[in-house]
Amino acid sequence: MMSEFSHSKADRAPLHYDPIEALAQHHAWALELVSQLDDSQLRTQYHPELSPVGWHLGHCALVEHFWIEEFILGSKADEQLHNLYFPERNFKQERSSRLPSGEALRRWLDSVHRRTLERIAEPPAPMAEHPMMREGYLAHFLEQHYAQHRETMCYCLAARRVGDHERADLPLSEAVRSDPVPSTFVRLPAGHYSVGTNGVRGYDNERPAHTVSIAGSELACSPVTNAQWLAFMSAGGYDSSAPWWSHEGARWLRATGVDCPSTWQMDRVGRFAWKGAHGFKALAAESPVSGVNFYEADAFAAWARARLPHEFEWEAAADLGLLQNIGNVWEWCSNTLAPYPGFRAFPYDGYSTPWFDGHHFVLRGSSIYTDTGLRRHAFRNFFQPHVRHHIGGLRLAFDR
């Protein structure tokens, strides 16, 4: 049984937020995307760590079908759909060849979407009485699940841009600035702070809300910028023998040969542009750097004689209104994902528990692709330290 929800300081969705309306908007976006991409584009795996766009769309529809029709209403499991769209039954590298045509996918999505909205709007008695319907939890859960995959699909679309015809006409980047250290900081006083949430929209790894003790520190007002990252690169930042790289980070760097963020693309004269889901644009000096993994973020922080903040420092400072420019990039934190005291897995054991393995680092904030309904201070994103296909950046912290 699920616990009762309350509405605490950092979990509230925007005023008048309607998860059913938001879910319908995700559905419309998905169908429009299917109409824009041909079968090859829906099936292509554009990045080794990302599934094809068509798989994400089908997976989101199956999740709706599974929780409503199978889990709550007791319909017989559709093993064919499970084998195709549940990740544990279909390895990422095999998904492209198994996907249906775009037209078949569109018809199935439309059917599932209509039924989902009808069921939530007028649930049959067994569904209306189910614990997952309490305080509208199911609608919140399905809408947020879709929102997360929608952001991932934006990463897929950005990866698709690599090597296309636009590469010949990249916008010119701005000049490199030499000062790598932010000039403005905020002081987070030592004390006890509430983190996490008990709200209905909170995932199990965000609950329960609890109090933590934080030593005083300083945090940069804003995330590290492109200009500051260019200065890092100009100073030999990607030299794996440099002292600012951890042992694991240096090993990753030597193995990959990476020399710039994953969202950057160099033109024919050696200047960078930024690539996203909608193509290329000039690399703006003051915009937050993105497309860096934990190893890169950690190395930059060490080079700047700083560190990455712990996620509790970040959440406490954000709740106090001390941090500026939240929402453009996910911000790497120094700690790995771990359960909060009193953690209870919900709605199933595998949602968060497998990632409490000491190998997934937390990111806080949100990115330009993050849906409004996920933009809360308590939200915990997480990736393995080598992953860099997302809009990940960093903010510096100092012990002084």
What do these coordinates show?
The protein has 400 residues and is α+β, with helices and mostly antiparallel strands. It folds into 2 domains: 19-160, Up-down Bundle (Four Helix Bundle (Hemerythrin (Met), subunit A)), CATH 1.20.120; 168-398, paralog of FGE (formylglycine-generating enzyme) (Alpha-Beta Complex), CATH 3.90.1580. The chain is built from 12 helices and 12 strands. The protein has helices spanning 19-36, 39-43, 53-72, 79-85, 95-98, 102-121, 125-128, 137-160, 226-234, 247-256, 294-303, 311-319; strands at 185-188, 191-195, 210-214, 217-220, 264-266, 272-276, 279-282, 330-336, 361-365, 381-383, 392-393, 397-398. Helix 1 (19-36) packs antiparallel against helix 6 (102-121) and helix 10 packs across helix 11 (294-303).
In total, the number of domains comes to: 2
CATH topology of the largest domain: paralog of FGE (formylglycine-generating enzyme)
The biggest sheet, with number of strands, parallel, antiparallel or mixed sense and barrel status, is:
4 strands, mixed
State the strand order across the main sheet. 10-9-8-11
Number of helices: 12
Number of strands: 12
Task: Return the string of H and E elements.
Answer: HHHHHHHHEEEEHHEEEHHEEEEE
User: How would you name the CATH homologous superfamily of the largest domain?
Assistant: paralog of FGE (formylglycine-generating enzyme)
